[in-house]
Amino acid sequence: MNLSLDSGAMVADLAAIAAHSDTPGPGVTRLVYGAADLRARAYLRERCREAGLELREDGLGNLFARWHGSEPELPAVASGSHIDAIPHAGRFDGVVGVIGALEAIRALQRAGFRPRHSIELILFTSEEPTRFGIGCLGSRALSGALSPEQLRGLHDSEGRSLESWRSEAQFVAPLEEVRLPVGSYAAFIEVHIEQGPLLEAELVPIGVVRAIAAPATLQLRLTGQTGHAGAVLMPERRDALLAGAEIALAVESAALSTGSPHTVATTGIFQIEPGAVNAIPGRATLAIDVRDIAAAPRDQALATIRSAIESICGRRHIEYDLHLLNADPPASCHPDVIEAIIKTCDDLSLPRMMMVSRAYHDSLFMASLCPTAMIFIPCRGGVSHRPDEEASLEHILQGTALLAHTLARLSA
Ligand code: GLV
Ligand code: MN
Ligand code: MN
Predict the structure, then answer these.
(1) Which phi and psi (to 5°) does residue 153 adopt?
(2) 3-class SS letters over 2-54
(3) Domain parsing of the chain, residue ranges
(4) What percent of the chain has pLDDT above 90?
(5) Tens digit of pLDDT for each residue in 238-277?
(6) I need a surface site. Which of 90, 121, 129, 319 has the fewest CB within 10 A?
């Protein structure tokens, strides 16, 4: 099939989404259900309507835009990603997969292709954990990994509930209707920037993902005793920051000790109170992210971290409150979808390499609902979650062409 992508439309769509940010530059910030997220969603809905897609939104704001196939009773073939962005992020994380899926559908329509299976664009709500502390909120709930009760228990850091946020954003359908049955889709493919340096270093335009690492997230509250920085002598202290500092070092050594090169662990949040130069830190809040592409070494690191917390806090007389927010199973991409992508690479003479995804994605949860795989494109220097994140138009077009032809193959 002779497909021509409208690169001007893609550039305009990417720029239009990037223009919606909660903060002035550099970079974009689009927290779920914030004003910028809602404006970007409105833009996208409009583009989907223009393309003649049928829209559905669930109670979390997951958006499903369907191009009906000639046999609409067959499960659809789907593609999509997220548009929410962490503070001062780049313009491409997630957005490339959403605009790529939209343009793939538009290009197939222009080419006169008539799918047998419907083709659906999915915009997932809150892939980023910024607002509610847990990533892949929308896809997690679609897959049933997060129940309506758990969703109702979620709050932002100021104590405002997800229920309040979503109703203000006009997403009012019952949470009980968000979960989808296994087999709802024939296949799911997500295009995403690599967020790592390998494709660029190897000068390969396409990564075919075979496995997606899964995070476990720990939230830790440490309580010691604050006091006067001059008056309290060292042997009397119960300093929550120092306990946290030892724990952060233990997190690093736990990741290094599993024997798996894929284990990574990060103490990404470390806040102290009262936060005065002349007061001993009496409280600390830490969030720890532990990942691997296999569950066993990831869980081994988690166990090592738990026992380090117990012994450090015991020795320093610190009380602690530890919550495992999530410990998701890593996913393998489906061989049939991988094969369809590889055959299409061959048809298009696109060089590709197999890789793993060290970042998590909505595909992690879609993989439990239907055969799933991911297409990576290079990003400059492997940089992501930074304002200077950059993907070239040439690579975006190559990834989108590969997606369009693979969607055609799978929906025929
Ligand atoms: C996704 O943004 C991740 O943290 O892997
Ligand atoms: Mn991200
Ligand atoms: Mn992403």
Answers:
(1) -85, 0
(2) CCCCCHHHHHHHHHHHHCCCCCCCCCEEECCCCHHHHHHHHHHHHHHHHCCCE
(3) 7-213+330-411, 215-327
(4) 99
(5) 999 999 999 999 999 999 999 999 999 999 999 999 999 9
(6) 319
Ligand 1 centroid to Cα of residue 266, in Å, is 12
Task: Give the model confidence (pLDDT) of 386-401 as tens digits.
Answer: 999 999 999 999 999 9
Q: Nearest Cα to 275, choosing from 323, 319, 226? A: 226
Cβ of 359 closer than 6 Å to ligand 1, yes or no, is yes
Is residue 293 lining ligand 1, measured as CB closer than 6 Å?
A: no
E-strand ranges in 358-404 read 372-377
Ligand 1 atom at minimal distance to the Cα of residue 291? 5
> What's the rounded Cα separation, in Å, for the pair 219 and 17?
32
- DSSP of 120-171: EEEEES--S-TTTS-S-HHHHHHHTSS-HHHHHT-B-TTS-BHHHHHHHTT-
Beta strand residue intervals within 185-332, DSSP E: 185-193, 206-212, 214-223, 264-273, 283-292, 319-327, 331-332
How much is the pTM?
A: 0.92
Q: pLDDT tens digits, residue range 91-137?
A: 999 999 999 999 999 999 999 999 999 999 999 999 999 999 999 99
Which atom in ligand 1 lies closest to the alpha carbon of residue 361? Answer: 1
Convert 1-17 to b/e letters by CB count within 10 Å (16 or more is b): eebebeeeebeebbebb
Judge if the beta carbon of residue 345 lies within 6 A of ligand 1: no
Structure-block tokens of residue 85: 């962005």
Judge whether 17 and 83 are in contact, CB under 8 Å.
yes
Amino acid (1-letter code) at residue 367: A
CATH fold label, 7-213+330-411: Aminopeptidase (3.40.630)
Q: Is 215-327 a CATH 1.20.1270.10 domain?
A: no
Pocket test for ligand 1, best of 29, 130, 195, 293 (most atoms within 8 A of CB): 195
- The identity of residue 123, as a single letter, is L
